[in-house]
Specification:
heterodimer, A: 209 residues, alpha/beta, Rossmann fold, five-stranded antiparallel beta sheet, five-stranded parallel beta sheet, 22% strand, B: alpha+beta, six-stranded mixed barrel, two-stranded antiparallel sheet
Chain lengths: 209, 415
């Protein structure tokens, strides 16, 4: 599902990052480990098509990302990739339900309200659909962000430090939730983190140096 | 979920900011539209009221006053002219039609005009009820007069001397209403029409009248202007003559004849109204300039609001890109946001302007008398609406480029 070969990315400053080659099968989950500055976020952005101009290969499913034009890449990302960031970055002008609905809308898929409701219910947010995102707790907000990432049934879910700001109890809950949802939606989950607590939750480790 | 909904949610999330910008723009647009409505309608009224009248002949004085008094019935007469002298002009071969006007009396705020049937015919006036005046002391009322005074056919009233309220009443003679005109949005709506003889009768100043009519019963030559009266009577007076030219040649010769060879003056409605507009134009231009400044300030304010809110929304934009929105989509959605601001502003502005004009025509009686209506729409209002959309796009252009150029990876990585 995800294949990385001899990937290199050079920053504008001239600094070059090399990444280890790896591949993940459909339904297989991976943990991207490394110190701050080792390029975890850069790799996730490359995999998600947020950064372009790499050398080597990145294949998502069977698509080589380099071959896609910018607008094709946008569409591809919308349909196949779900992002979860350390901060939730919800759109504060919208309600919970509308935030989740943004994902299919922006990906150009018809918004299915039943599905939105269902995903929110899976994450324990039933009854909060019409609430403004400025009026829910941090934990709830993160679950909304997760709902938004999985609602399109993406092939790949990329999570950037989803747990590093959480206490042990919540860390445990969030990673369970992610793994659970990824299996349910048949997605491949790749988590980038320096959070040692996750090491024994996902067996496949990719180490960046 | 659609782009408009998203834009609407963003506007709603900052209600004070949104309302301020919309109100600011609406005020500017309202001033422009009120001026448009007033100016257009006034111009239409003035040209339609002056239509068919090529020249006004009256006593010497201000030509503008002569026009204002005898065509628009606003100002006071310059004085009277001798009937005999007026007839000489009326008989000139260059004159196709001459209509005498005798002013001097009023009832409440409405003027009583002594004239002939040619005068209402000039405006193609039609009767709503009753009949035209025939004998002395019979009147036909304009539609607005009848409506405001609640008069109907058969009612009678005493006129007041002078054209303002509070003059002394002519108590011994009563006018009788014979008919009421249909409303035609002309000056006739606000006039009380009667015969020239009625005006003379009420004033009855010249007691020598009898001796004149005694002398000429055998060879009675009717006056061209007042047919019941013998021609060449130098004791009777009228206020003015409205002339129609027979040929374009008259436009050159007649004013010269009148101004040079008589104690009267001639004034051209076309020339004087053009002069009036150029005088009024200064005031209108100042107001219009003020309105444009308002619109300019509101566009700057909208620009700043969008610029700032997009700075705050950098993460929103990046997140939307990460969910599959293309650069073009974000660019368009910011333009849409700007145009929504200005579109709402101009729609409120237009509604406000029509509301103001409607209120004015109801509350201010002078405005009501001019017949200016708030429920008239002009093609220019479409221009205002489209213009506002373009303005919104201009205000939003730089913020939209900002949105277009957002480096998603950098924004998302640099928490």
């Amino acid at each position: 599902m995800v294949t990385v070969k001899q990937l290199q990315y050079s920053y504008r400053s001239g600094h070059i990052l090399s990444f280890p080659s790896f591949s993940l099968q459909k339904g297989e989950h991976g943990l991207l480990l490394g110190e701050s500055g080792s390029g975890k976020t850069t790799l996730l952005h490359l995999l998600g098509g947020l950064l372009k101009g790499y050398s080597g290969n990145i294949q998502i499913d069977t698509t080589e990302l380099r071959t896609l034009s910018e607008s094709k890449l946008d569409t591809f990302r919308g349909k196949n990739i779900g992002f979860i960031f350390q901060k939730n970055h919800l759109i504060s002008a919208l309600t919970v339900e509308e935030n989740v609905g943004m994902a299919p809308f922006l990906a150009g898929i018809a918004v299915d309200e039943k599905k939105t409701k269902h995903v929110l219910a899976e994450l324990g947010l039933a009854g909060k659909e019409k609430t403004s995102v400025t009026q829910i707790s941090q934990g709830q907000a993160q679950r909304v962000a997760i709902a938004r990432a999985v609602v399109n049934n993406p092939r790949v879910i990329l999570a950037d430090e989803p747990t590093s700001a959480l206490d042990d109890k919540n860390c445990d809950r969030v990673i369970r939730l992610l793994l659970d949802l990824a299996s349910k939606h048949d997605s491949t989950l790749l988590v980038a983190t320096h959070d040692q607590r996750l090491k024994d939750k996902i067996s496949r480790h990719i180490l960046l140096t | 979920m659609n782009s408009l909904f998203l834009v609407w949610s963003y506007l709603k999330s900052k209600p004070l900011n949104t309302v301020l910008n919309i109100v600011l723009l609406a005020l500017g647009i309202a001033v422009i539209t009120v001026l448009l409505l007033f100016n257009k309608q006034l111009e239409e009224k003035i040209t339609s009221n002056a239509k068919g009248i090529d020249l006004v002949v009256g006593a010497k004085g201000s030509p503008m006053q002569l026009i204002l008094c005898n065509i628009f019935h606003i100002d006071f007469p310059t004085g009277n002219i001798n009937l005999n002298e007026a007839e000489r002009i009326a008989r000139n071969r260059l004159v196709k039609n001459a209509i005498p006007l005798a002013l001097g009396d009023s009832y409440r705020e409405f003027r009583i005009i002594g004239t002939t049937k040619d005068y209402p015919e000039l405006y193609h006036a039609e009767l709503a009820q009753g009949d035209w005046w025939k004998n002395e002391m019979e009147v036909t009322l304009g539609a607005n007069v009848a409506a405001r005074l609640k008069f109907s056919v058969g009612d009678s009233f005493e006129s007041t001397h002078g054209l303002t309220q509070g003059g002394h009443a002519h108590e011994e003679q009563k006018f009788v209403v014979k008919g009421i005109l249909k409303c035609a949005n002309t000056i006739l709506d606000n006039l009380i029409l009667t015969s020239v003889e009625s005006i003379w009768h009420v004033h009855n100043t010249h007691t020598v009248e009898d001796s004149v009519s005694d002398e000429s019963p055998i060879s009675f030559v009717p006056s061209k202007l007042v047919p019941s009266h013998p021609a060449g009577d130098s004791t009777k007076e009228v206020t003015s003559l409205l002339l129609q030219y027979r040929s374009p040649m008259a436009a050159i010769q007649l004013p010269r004849i009148v101004n040079g060879q008589s104690s009267m003056q001639a004034a051209s409605p076309a020339f004087e109204t053009a002069r009036l507009f150029s005088i009024m134009g200064v005031g209108v231009d100042i107001l219009l300039g003020f309105a444009y400044v308002l619109v300019l300030i509101s566009s700057i304010s909208i620009f700043i609001a969008l610029y700032n809110s997009l700075k705050e929304r950098r993460y929103d934009l990046a997140i939307m890109r990460s969910m599959g929105a293309s650069r073009g989509k974000l660019f368009l959605s910011v333009l849409l946001e700007g145009s929504t601001f200005t579109f709402l502003g101009s729609v409120f502005g237009l509604v406000l302007a029509h509301g103001i004009v409607v209120l004015m025509s109801v509350l201010v009686s002078e405005a009501g008398k001019t017949g200016i209506s708030g429920i008239v729409f002009y093609a220019e209002e479409w221009i205002i609406l489209t213009g506002s959309l373009v303005l919104g796009i201009i205000c939003a252009f730089i913020p939209a480029v900002q949105a277009y150029r957002t480096d998603i990876s950098k924004v998302l990585a640099g928490n």
